[in-house]
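Quick one, T. Sequence first:
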Amino acid sequence: MMFATADVLYLCPVDVDGFMTWSADPDFARWPQQHRLADGALRPAMLPVHDSGLIRPRHTAVAIIEHVLQVLGGAPWNVKDPQSPRASRLFSVVMPGHRIERHADEQEPAWVCRVHVPILTNTRATFHVGGDRLHLGPVGHAFAVNARAEHEIVNEGATPRLHLMFDVVGG
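Structure tokens:
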């Protein structure tokens, strides 16, 4: 599982136990960005951690973020301002048989990387970047991703792919 490409770097294991009860049977249909596609399936969506409505996932997210920042060497790294209009701590779900189309994210100059932590995944949920097709897993491991590079997410599995994501910025 230890791998590195030009755009994805394995960071470390993290404790995701605080998400396990919550993520065992999430009601994705109630997420604010969700809506039904023409085939009746739910489209991929993102939910700011602070909008999850649950205290335990928020505390777990903060603990994971603090741990990953230590692994990255502590200061001068920080997490993008959670009060900004574009929330920096998100849960991202891609439902079975769906994808997030190829795109590149625009980031501020101080941006360093986006960290993905799989909460629910399957081996057929893949991250495509720079000619590589990678499975970011297993659950409970953190990966630094260059979201400025063109990338897409494809879930050909039978279960949802749910990641905690947050952006790291320089001091």
